[in-house]
Amino acid sequence: MIGPSFVPAPVARLPWRMLILVIAIASFGLVILYSAAGGSVRPWALSQGIRFVVFLSGALLIARIPEDVWRQAALPGYVLIVALLFAVELLGAVRGGSQRWLDLGFIRLQPSEVMKPAIVLACARFYELLPPNETRRFGAIWPAALLIALPAGLVMLQPDLGTALMITSGGLTVMFLAGVPLRLFVGGALALAVAAPLAVNFLLHDYQRNRVLIFMDPESDPLGTGYHISQSKIAIGSGGMTGKGFLHGTQSHLDYLPEGHTDFVFATMAEEWGVLGGLFIIVAYLMVIRWGINVGLQAQSRFAKLAAAGLATTIFFYVAINLAMVMGLAPVVGIPLPLVSFGGSAQMTVFVCLGILMSIDRSNRVEKSW
Question: Does residue 4 belong to any structural domain of this protein?
Fold first, then answer.
């Protein structure tokens, strides 16, 4: 029995445990944004809440799309988004010194955000089409590497190091899960370590280079490039176990903490809610990611297995990179904490991932019923 008879079957079949966790994370995020604005729903909490309702509704609609549609659309969709990334280079709108958006009049589109789930679907489709006995050969590596390198390179030109890393991480995750030999990843990591100094000095923009260097020695410029990290650590450390209390944070309310409502929203939360608040967010996210991994484990097709695991890992990278960034464990690369940080791009991407995961989960249930 799926549920009470008065509940429609499609509604009862939704993964409500996951959805309740997502709603809890987003609701906590609205409370944090309300506090960051000094006890007001404007300018952040109200618009964030509206976006959440819209994107959640969109995810539920995406969940109704059959898995086969995602399979057939994976590579054509990838080609379309790559074309949009080229269009950004030619016609894109510039904001904050970066050229990342296409201004379509009624909407400002950021194709690089859509590429995060698209690269996972494209790589999953490629490895599904590839015969299993070919996975450990060179022919299984260079096409997938090209699929990843092309959009990642275009995004780096915008410039957007954080998004390029996310795209690369999502694609490499699918390659690893598909069975590409581990020695190739080890060799690639060693080559990256050798090339990193050259990349830092010759490929990165000045502000990106400064972020990497300040990560290695944050106290060298505490009032300049290292200001974000220093203030973030102070905010997190001052919260203690239970925090200073709701609306009683000082780092964010006195404007010591820059971007306390976007990239560094976790520091704003930790100051007022302490370790307990941080654990709530981390555990809730891990449970959502665990659900996504389980969807992949239960899937029947190779495409669904790889896509589900890759999409769940994409959400993991969002959370892990942001938390490492605000704690000073990674350079500041502009990755927000989805569902909590103010802004629609990351929230949209996560709901696209969740919608496709629910679509695969729905297909799993149908196949089991047969």
Answer: no
